[in-house]
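On clarity, I found the account of how folds are encoded harder to follow than it need be. Since the whole study asks how a given chain folds, the encoding of that fold should be made plain. For illustration, here is how one protein appears when written out as sequence plus structure tokens:
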Amino acid sequence: MCGIIGILGQDEVAGRLLEGLSRLEYRGYDSAGIAVMDGVKIDLTKADGKLSHLIEKVAHNTPVGRLGIGHTRWATHGAATVENAHPHRAGKVTLVHNGIIENYAELKTELECAGAQFASETDTEVLASVLDHLLNQSDTLDEACQALLHCIKGSYAIAALIEGYPDLMFVARNGSPLAIGYGGITSTGHNEIFVGSDALALAGLAARVSYLEDGDSAFLRSDRVQVFDRGGAEVTRETVEMPEEGWEVDKGPYPHFMLKEIHEQPESLARLLREVIDIESGALKDIVPTVDFRGADRIVMVACGTAHYATHVAKYWIERFARIPVEIEIASEFRYRPRVHGKHEIAIFVSQSGETADTLAALKDVQGHVTKTLAVVNVPTSTMARDADAVLTIEAGPEIGVASTKAFTGQMLALLALALKAGCDRGVVAPEMLSALVDDLVTLPRLVSETLALSGDIDQIARNLVQSEHVLFLGRGIQYPIACEAALKFKEITYVHADGYAAGELKHGPIALVDDAMPVVVFDGADALTEKTASNAAEVVARGARMVRIGASVEVCVAGVRTPASSEVVEPFVNAVVLQLLAYQAALAKGTNVDQPRNLAKSVTVE
């Protein structure tokens, strides 16, 4: 969702702004723009649609200047048009903004009464107009900027250029992430300063990075950076080295990022395995040492989208291996009902980016009411990772495709490791049991690789499925959330309606939909529910449905995918890879935009 890049440099910035925006395409967007100051005036270039449209415009009329900001927009207020694209200008102020200004309508009315006119439908243009108005009413720039932050309500990450200040950028953050990057000393002896909505935007530009906290604002100049907290006091935020590796966003030999990331799972899972288990001794490493599950009387897990289904899978593991009751919560609903917190409750929050607005808000909401908060994230420097009492990173590396793949399996594996830790803490998982489970987990990268080799078998099934208007995915036990994730992936990137159901629930309503035009995909599990799943599948076949079965026990003569034989604990990962390939190949057959499906964003940083 919406990306920001800003550069206060010693060389021309237009090309580097575009490069930074290209790194932010994965967040999802529908328009883009840059603003460059030449020392006197600010040159604005915007385009709707793909970033290539903006690049083409800039190539025909390249703005000159060493100070600039850029933005990729995902529409919230107003349609995806050039007029609504960022940056927005009002008087002396040109700015970009991520988030939602909740009181923008009230502010807009006040400004219109004072004679202001607006060219867009956005809350961001109102933000620029408010700051311009305050500049005319204030004695100093600092006074105007602080007044701005006091009069707006909502979530925001702001980067602003102001005519008359050729060596300054104003930035602020509340609820939306913002990072400041520091480059090396240039040949002229001056430092370069950068700002980005995440560290990936600053890859290849900054050598060091610091992260603004909620309520922070800052004035960036080439010779100094001043950061102020919510109360206006000058503060220092920790600066860390920018990772030299791990930021590569090239697709390599793959036609899409999604396919590349599906194929990266043997490596990403192996990387996480090395972080959580000692393969030689068959023991669990000392993960999240500050979290002790011995006294826990309940675990609540909070997430959105794909991460939500990862928590559903983990519920089976935690209740089995640790004997702790688990509640699963959708983050967007979590805060909007009275909750009774357990006296010894541990809350786990799962998010790929660590910036998901609803999940982050839920984390803040429970702080002080539960024993511990724990974040499972892919970005260790994210807000969620910093705010939680403890963090476990999934080690997936950058995930660019909007539809999550390697992050999903990484989240499952991290949560499985937590389940085993909880079981060990409570004495439920004995050393010999843990050793056997570790032996199973060691096979995971190999079995995922073998599953990837089934792509040819999956392709024809995918082509058949995408010809239908509806697809039903079924599973029982731990395969039920896998079926739900399959339905989510399918509709995300194929735009074909799909539903995931617990197979035993068919007869309670959904079976009314089943006819010879309805394909039904059944995930078989190597567990005690295998026979019951087969019985549910028979009910579907009896009503003429086209059934597809996925699992290690699938017979060669049955339409489906016969997966590599695996243990019960590994099987959800194998089936996850199948569902990802199934959705990917179906989308490919239909010709949709696999990496950037319509209306979706990678990181949902607004409520």
